[in-house]
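This part of the workshop introduces the protein records we will be handling. A record pairs a protein's sequence with a compact description of its fold. Comparing a sequence with its tokens is the quickest way to learn the format. The record below serves as our worked example for the rest of this section:
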Amino acid sequence: MISKLIKKKSIIKIDKVDKEHMSAILHIADKQLGQDYINSDDFIQDDFIKLQASIYNKIVGFITAKELNIEELYKKIPNLKEKNLKQLSITNKINYIGSVATDSIYEGRGVATALYNQVFKELNKDNNIILMTGWKSKKGINIDGIAKRLGFVKILEVKEYWKEDSIKNKYDCPICKNPCLCSAIIYLKHNNSI
């Protein structure tokens, strides 16, 4: 019965992340993105847009997004500069979706879609492009289905994207453990298609 009710968007509540729910968010991040991938101090202090999803007052997911200038983007994804995309040459700033995760019990019930829809409303509409990163493991691409439904297209694959970072920062990938050998899949969407 609950799974049918959850499909109604009205019960998925989206709010700005607050410190009170940080442990629930970190628990979801550890399970879905990898143990210690997100550090609570960095998460709280970072200037990302941070939204949480709840159902009946239980935190069930979160999303982060940020406006980046093109140089910040190239630092974050160095291989992107080599791709020399025409879309990126006409803009100075882009909207970047950093992380999104849903409690595995609530996957496929509209939580991630509700988070994306709300973050789209909060992103800078003057930026022509939205980028986001998914991961590709031996199990497939974690956000490929929702990315396509939301109008994103794959533009780049970066092999072993998190390998060095996972070793340096000592976090465990939920699939590979440490080091993370997953590839990053970079997706692009034009802001006017939100």
